[in-house]
TrEMBL record:
The gene is LCMT1. It is an enzyme of class 2 (transferase). This is Leucine carboxyl methyltransferase 1. Residues 1-24 are annotated as: Disordered. S-adenosyl-L-methionine binds at R70, G95, D168, L169, E195.
Amino acid sequence: MASRSLRDPPVSNPESDTGDEGVRGTCDDASLCKRFAVSIGYWHDPYIQYFVRLSKERKAPEINRGYFARVHGVNQLLKAFLKKTECNCQVINLGAGMDTTFWKLKDENLLPKKYFEVDFPMIVTRKLYNIKTKSTLSKPIQELNSEESFLLDGHVLDSNRFAIVGADLRDLNSLEEKLKKCNMNTQLPTLLVAECVLVYMTPEQSASLLKWAANSFETAMFINYEQVNMDDKFGQIMVENLRRRQCDLAGVETCKSLDSQKQRLLSNGWEKASAIDMMELYSSLPRAEVSRIEALEFLDEMELLEQLMQHYCLCWATKGGNNLGLKDITYY
């Protein structure tokens, strides 16, 4: 149960693909977990309620703490990139699911020049329906646009500062074409974010994506959150649990260690790479914040939390941007 709850959806082939169907279903798992953690105060997100209904089922404390560490770590890296570039950049969220980062960044006056999301066409359609029918979501986008530069239909959103497209990360020509149609600018410093995405692609496919990202932008950063240390018994149980749900971790062999995660980035065009497991990240969180979240609910098995967190990692890599200090970016 624990491993299943930390899934996020990648982008993949058309909806008829049965393997992709199992992976796509994990979008709901991740969204429900985030919604529950927010509801009991782990972090503040006033927008997730418009995408996900609150489930009656309680999520385990170790799951909530795992999500807290994940959201904290990714946000720290994202905001460090925005700060270094003074928001004169673009962000591409690969496999974004029901992510609400765009709206939160707007509230904090931290929007990049343009924020892109990519995901399964079916998930994109669902997300766009929610945006269309809920003014709390659509108004902030419209405020940033003149009417003629705002397109929102069943399959794509494009506006001055925000775009959502349905695409397949394994078809890089099509992906690039769709992003360029929405005015992706290869001259801008670019941050790409992938949370539990690459692990669902074969090592060859994820290598091609990483190489495309490194080659497409002169100045760039890549954030990858996914499994690590998957060769042990705990990791094998995680793989089997997902396989039973027709959800195959096609790229699990690249998740052997923190070193294998870094090497994948370095061998595909990235100049500097770092990786930590989520227990290390959790242990480095500000003590006041840890005390706050640990007071939210009782955890009787610290060992399970440690096991779970040691099987997920946060990796990031940079290319160029020496004048901006991108190589100095870290998770705290």
